[in-house]
Amino acid sequence: MSSEFPLVSVVVPVFNAERFIAETVHSVLGQTFKPWELLLVDDGSTDRSRSIIREFEVSYPGRIRCLAHPGGANRGQFAARLLGARHSVAPVVALLDADDLWDLDYLEQHFKLWSRSEAKGGAMSYGPARYWHADDASQDFVQSMPEGTPRLFGPGELLQPFIDSDYRVTPCPSCSLVRRDLFDGLEHLEATAKDSLACEDQIFGWRIAARWRIAVHQHAWVRYRQHHSSSVSTTAQFGTFQRAELTALVAIHHDLAGLLPDHPLLTNGSLVGRIARLRSEIGEEDDGVRYGKGFFDLERDDSGVTWRWTGQEATLLLRNDRVNRALAIKGAVPFNDTAVSFQIDGRPFDHTVRHAGEFECEFELPSLAQGAPVWTEFEMSTDKVLSAPHDSRSLGIRILRISWS
To answer: Are both 8-237 and 287-404 of the same fold?
Structure first.
């Protein structure tokens, strides 16, 4: 056991992994790179996983730690990784799933690459997984990587390859080293990530790729175990993968619309098109809204959809398929005497909210000619400077309902 201060914190979410977790832990214990700590995060397991990981904690005190959510809750892999990262002490987090295995020199080799890319501003590093069928090696294959690998990709550069490849080149968690601070402030995404099931990794990977530089290498040092009880297989078996993908992509779309409104994924329609196709495939009604610049933090519940915006301007496109209509808006503002200006297809409408809280207003619109639906451009601005989305979710104007009448 090394007495060195850890340079890498290994975080492993554990949920009903009694079949594999011991082998996974031993693949960490055998690493040639020694300055690591291992955080095993129980995510509400109902099998023997909890007792197995506690035995490792007792056997390797100070080196291996076990964590759990309050009340032993199951909150999903995303939340489990955040919990592990919050309790980590190293500046770098190595993600590892409870059923995957590292080559024994994985950390040694990957940390060398990490050190070089970090010096150039890299915040994450990943490479290809070896899709591993323990019972039939003839089915094994190595994951593809983005065109141009190996290289350091800039913010936003990987997003188009992610979707064009049907996610084949996105980061596998077990192959990823991530700067510790990138996990901060993501708790508000936990529920969405859990609803995304096997696609929850996409929310984290896309968020990083939109904001920071990512180093991608071509070395397959990780065995990504394929088996029928994995989260991806389980999601596919029950026919819920499309709904999970839709949940993830809607969250990703709103994040990008606020962060990179002019990114090609938004301007060329490829992300919106995929969302619309998924809604059609699962029989979900299209809500008739296309999200433009300035929005973040979409929320959906039984009462409908909430949009928030930050900065001082935001834009929506609303499907308008009837004649003689008025547009009714219900919203909320955090400040007294807030002037909110709306432009609907270029026509200005102003509304002043005297007191902080909810407001309602309605605007009469000219009749539209009969025929195919059109898209009405709905722009909003305010005289108040609002907080950035990572500062406080309570600030920012909310649009609680937009409806035609």
So the answer is: no
Give the tokens for residue 373. 């639906």
User: CA–CA separation, 291 vs 316, rounded Å?
Assistant: 5
Does position 395 have pLDDT exceeding 50, yes or no?
Answer: no
Q: What percent of the chain has pLDDT over 90?
A: 50
Confidence of residue 221 (pLDDT cuts 50, 70, 90): very high
**Residue length, the chain?**
405
Please answer whether residues 289 and 351 qualify as being in contact, where contact means their C-beta atoms are separated by less than 8 angstroms.
no
Handedness of CA 388, 394, 397, 401 (dihedral sign): positive
Q: For the chain, what are the domain ranges? A: 8-237, 287-404
- Contact present, 175 and 232 (Cβ < 8 Å): no
Q: What are phi and psi of 325, to 5 degrees?
A: -120, 155
Report the phi/psi class of residue 273: left, alpha or beta, with left for phi > 0 and alpha for psi in -120 to 50. Answer: alpha
Please name which of 9, 15, 14, 30 lies closest in space to residue 102, comparing C-alpha atoms: 30
Domain 287-404 has CATH 3.40.50.300: no
Q: Cα(13)–Cα(51) distance, rounded to whole angstroms?
A: 15
CA 180, CA 166: separation in Å to the nearest integer? 28
Angle made by CA atoms 42, 75, 231, in degrees to the nearest 5:
80
Residue 95, pLDDT > 50, answer: yes
H or E element, residue 107 = helix 106-118
CA atoms within 13 A on the CB side of 360: 3
pTM of the model: 0.75
Q: Tell me how many helices (H) and strands (E) the chain has.
A: 11, 22
Does residue 110 contact residue 129 with C-beta atoms inside 8 Å? no
Cα–Cα dist 396/401, whole Å? 15
- What is the third-level CATH fold of 8-237? Spore Coat Polysaccharide Biosynthesis Protein SpsA; Chain A (3.90.550)
